[in-house]
């Protein structure tokens, strides 16, 4: 970057907005050596560190070494995640690793949040400060302040950490020195914020990219994409146990039920199916309306038994969901699951500009045909002989005989979970 070529950390700080670097310079215009080293490190030596929590801990440690009376510090980020609205990174004096907490959607309506300095800050304040050891200080009666006083802290301040496009996060510092932070201390801490903002935004956006990919294509596919599998046709052939699941009579349900009830039903159904699959090491590649496609790569020697364990747990969860539906006056949900094993092409297909990272191949087609056959045979889970032999589980299943599958020559032997009947 250009700013790195024109005077190290000092030039970088001068080029950043909202710097306040005048009062802490020596008479010849240079930063005092021990504090300059913190800025040099932050701007020039953190590029090899992937995680912002590690950078934050090291920064706080270096601040303490430079004589800054920082005993506690936090970073508060708003994040894009399907479960969490935000995250907090906490450092205390003596910690070698940060404490990381995530906050679910709805936390902004809780009493704990509403009666906190963070709420005051998010309500528009550019600075919230309390002299904790001054009984005459005009500080709101926030429970956090009592907790900080109990820890022996004397001063607390929260400031914005500005990212691009108007994104505004928060950083806090607390001191344990009698009297708290001096004006020079606060000036120096403000001066490092623009550099920290750049460093943290890069890491936060890297994490955001991973989170979005993991959310929409799964953890394994996301790693492939981040590693460079972004061209059409890129991919590998892998052996996998394949599971395809579909909800029965969904069109009828969606016509009869209110929209919000249908969405709640689908989410409950996918939770019941997806969580066991992921817990047992499976990878959900896509949700297809009211169905899903998942694989268990055979690189794991337990892949087939893991798939069976996932089905067992999913069926228990779906039974519980159906009990809840019956109590609400709804009909129980029916479903079909087809299972096969074989080689699949795992990679990108699609148009020049719009790709889908998925699996294709004859083995996927057979799993799909087995799922469709569950409607005819009235069995919720059908498995191919190839899978059963690979899993070594024939004794636990019921052999239903041979059946033709649409689009395939000949017949294949099909097994079902013994004694299981579709709801």
Could you write a compact summary of the structure shown?
The chain is 40% helix and 26% strand.
From the structure above, extract its key features.
13 helices; 6-stranded antiparallel sheet; disordered N terminus; 423 residues; alpha+beta; elongated
Spell the H/E element sequence: HHHEEEHHEHEEHHEHHEEHEEHEHEE
Number of strands: 14
What sort of overall outline do the alpha carbons produce when their principal axes are compared? elongated
Count up the helices: 13
Strand content: 25-35%
Whole-number average pLDDT? Answer: 86
Layout of helices and strands, plus pairs?
Elements: H1 8-15, H2 33-44, H3 52-65, E1 72-78, E2 84-92, E3 99-104, H4 111-114, H5 117-122, E4 128-131, H6 143-150, E5 155-162, E6 168-175, H7 183-217, H8 219-226, E7 235-247, H9 250-256, H10 259-279, E8 283-288, E9 291-297, H11 303-327, E10 335-350, E11 355-360, H12 362-377, E12 381-384, H13 385-391, E13 397-404, E14 411-417
Parallel strand pairs: 10-12
Antiparallel strand pairs: 1-2, 1-6, 2-3, 4-5, 5-6, 7-9, 7-10, 8-9, 10-11, 12-14, 13-14
Helix pairs in contact: 1-2, 2-3, 2-7, 7-8, 10-11
